[in-house]
Amino acid sequence: MSPLLIRALLDRGDAFASTSQSSISSALKDKTVVNLFYENSTRTRVSFELATKRLGGSVLNISVAGSSVKKGETLLDTATTLNAMHPDILVVRHNCAGAAKLLSQHVDAAVINAGDGRHEHPTQALLDALTIRRRVGHIEGLRIAICGDIANSRVARSNIHLLGTLGAELRLVCPATLLPAAVDQMGVSVFTDLETGIKDADIVMMLRLQTERMAGTETPSQREYFNFFGLDKAKLERSAPNALIMHPGPMNRGVEIDSATADDVEKSLIRMQVEMGVAARMACLEALALGLDSTS
Amino acid sequence: MTDIQFINAHIIDPSQNLDGIGYVDVQNGVIKYCGLGDAPKASKDTKIIDCAHSYLAPGLVDMRVQSGDPGAEHLEDLNSLLYAAAAGGVTAFACLPNTQPIIDDASMIDSLCLRASRQGGSQLYVYGAATKGLAGTEMAELGLMAESGAVGFSNGITSIQDALVMRRLLSYASMIDKPVIQHCEDASLIADGEMNEGETSTRLGLIGSPAVAEVIIIDRDLHLVRLTGGRYHVAHISTRAGIDAVRKAKAEGLPVTADTAPPYFTLNELAVSTYDTAMKLSPPLRSEDDRLAVIEGLADGTIDAVSSDHVPVDGDAKMQPFGPSQPGASGIDTLFALTISLVHGGHISMIRAIDILSLSPATILDVPGGSLVPGSQADIILFRPDTGWIVKGVNFTSASRITPFEGQPVQGVIDATYVDGKEVFRRG
Fold it and tell me: Which of A126, B210, B256, B299 is the most exposed place for a label (fewest CB within 10 A)?
């Protein structure tokens, strides 16, 4: 996506975040949004649901549990079935990279990728950018450290693309076992030491580490991981004096971040991220709805 | 008396280093004469085929074909496979034992070969399963299967992981002088791998299989070859490191051979960028450097053969996200043209192309064919190397129509195929 398009979405998200008036846009009036979630999600699904409702649309939630997926129906068959009901926008989360792209080739509805495997989570990156912009005022020139399970993180990949496009200086910090191959080719610098990696950083973005990756597989133990890669007050002192902390959630308190740091009202943007999630998704939904109207 | 005389043919025969206009006499299914120059006047009962300077070469010998028959005839049965082989210029091919049931028993080999011979056409050979049920643990009845015609032993699409099992296989197979065909990938390293590991896998969010998974198995096996003296063949080699290892082993004089398949010298991992599941292959498409190494290996003789790596894949198994989709693609329709592209690209000579498609694999498998020397079985193809066409799965003669080369322009068509002196295919 071009910087111009990203800025347009951020501007619109900013406007949505600045008002609680429901009259600001009714772009989704008479439109149906289907949330098709193959992975458990609370915040992303609710965020899309709320965004749809605020734009006057109707929303249908389909989660894997109790659906025909468990009866062996393939992703494409489910999509074709849903397509026959003519939804306008399909919001998809799936555990396979490329799933949203595959669906978009087989349905008439516009498709929003709400997370596809380890690949991308574009609206998360958009809400992260919106959060940073509203708090700091700009993204260009900021030194942003993304720390944690980079290899398995779609949030990291989307943020590398989006924040990099907007001119941030990006650093990745993680144990070597969680570093994806040749990631330094994506315009980032790589650190395997947290204190060096977040030195003078303006933003420290922590990522969730799944507990099964701390049982002697990717990392030796939870205790060791927190010791070297968990964010606490002492380590945070290495960052810039006014450094802000972000986390896409859900957090593992005491694993990648300690509670005192996560809940620091001065420094933590974590709750604001959730709030901006609705506004950023409203911007995406509205843009698609306007596009749908202009093509139909 | 000569039955058929091919005249004005541009003969390519790597076994005699022949490359020029000449003629070939066939009698009773056997080459009676092959040489350059004008043919003498034949008797009136001889069938004269004027090749008008188009090419004549020994038929292709394809070392790696998966047959859907028995067990998955709805994907491809023997009839369709044999016809596709003939149309692709393949006069003989060897099937992997990973059918259903698995070919780990002499009677299975008898049965499949017998059914194929009843169909006629191209010659079907079979690899016996190296281990019972392809489980990789217990040695199958190699000797009995060899007596029934097994041309080698393979563990199908999986690698033999256990070093002791591999040692014993090489050791035992050396008594019956048959090659052990290894698909080289360390299973623990590739665990959930979905594509080649590198910048592309990172960008796409797909789980990477590291290229070193290939050379780790090759290096281990080469030590075991040194220990046992068994004949070892690396199937569909795809990495520079693996090719370097084979090159060194050959220089050392070890009984090692290798083949590759057209995707590994034609495409690289970037082809996966659109999540096109036709690009999901095993081993995965590698880096550009690996692709160039495959071409170098074919040019300098490190890689002996090119096989089609033909896999009949269920379309439904490909209509999925990239990760869980089934690896493999159809290959027999495109084997010839894609390999000839190396000649058009200036990488190898036409003689070398026919060597890697015909003489070398026939030699590795120790089967008839691959040569036009008088006395050889008359397995012959007529072809035009420059004629262009566009790869379209729907037009394949094989019932398996998923190809990573969909829409790609290629050059080189088979005009006719002869097996045992009998015409089994002619372009209409």
Answer: B299
